[in-house]
């Protein structure tokens, strides 16, 4: 099952997490605080951001990416998929049920 | 080698991390603070929790899952396995030794 | 594309992140605060550290590991590679460009 790694500005992160759960595109979203270092226009930048780890299913992954692109304030957001090699079975079932009833 | 992603209530997280290291089911556990958004009984909930990233080996993975289920306060805990595609060799050896002497 | 998971002492983490971006070994590094529990010399230890998640490419991965080993204050640092199963295409392109002009 995919965990989707998304970074977002702190101010937009809670609403994005809520949208994904409300629209049943993720069963659960873990939000963590991060300091991001990157290069932009040739300069090293450092920003406070949030990392969102969205727990979803293969079936709705494409719809989740589409929704994140619609809602995200950046033109080029970080959206990455990491497939789990194993998931505790009852938790996997809860995840599948949480996104299934759309 | 597997990294195991576990979420737990803040109050239970440190003890769980310590148990896994003490019982040589993980060489090391990284604990991060998270805000979790999820649906429960039809309502969107938001809770402060901890993410535990347990560094272990394929050999003891099943025993680690069994122990987490025994110690975890939730009936349906989030327990997910992510296999690394590469590990710095001396760190991999330290991990293997740390869980081997059981 | 690889995300590289590195742990480092809090005091060394920002400089390490900046070095990786400055030397075009990573397009972006997310730094998160963590409490690490591990066994050292038979005793359970608990330390405040940082987790660095470096977004890079397969081409420069080996050079990134070499640089982390040179700069890292530990003899046996945690350096782990997790390959993404999918990346939002424009973000993947930005990553590739950010590390390519070396």
From TrEMBL, chains A, B, C:
InterPro entries: Ion_tolerance_CutA, N-reg_PII-like_a/b, N-reg_PII/ATP_PRibTrfase_C
Protein name in the entry: Divalent-cation tolerance protein CutA
GO biological process: response to metal ion
Keywords for the protein's UniProt record, in alphabetical order: Cytoplasm
Family to which this protein belongs: Belongs to the CutA family.
A molecular function (GO) term: copper ion binding
Pfam family, one: CutA1
Domain of life per record: Archaea
């Amino acid at each position: 099952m995919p965990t989707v790694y998304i970074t977002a500005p702190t101010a937009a992160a809670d609403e994005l997490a809520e949208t994904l759960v409300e629209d049943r595109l993720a069963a659960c979203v873990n939000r963590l605080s991060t300091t991001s270092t990157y290069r932009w226009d040739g300069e090293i930048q450092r920003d406070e951001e949030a990392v969102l780890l969205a727990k979803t299913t293969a079936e709705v992954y494409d719809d989740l990416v589409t929704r994140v692109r619609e809602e995200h304030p950046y033109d080029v957001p970080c959206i990455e998929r990491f497939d789990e090699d194993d998931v505790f079975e009852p938790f996997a079932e809860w995840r599948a049920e949480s996104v299934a009833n759309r």
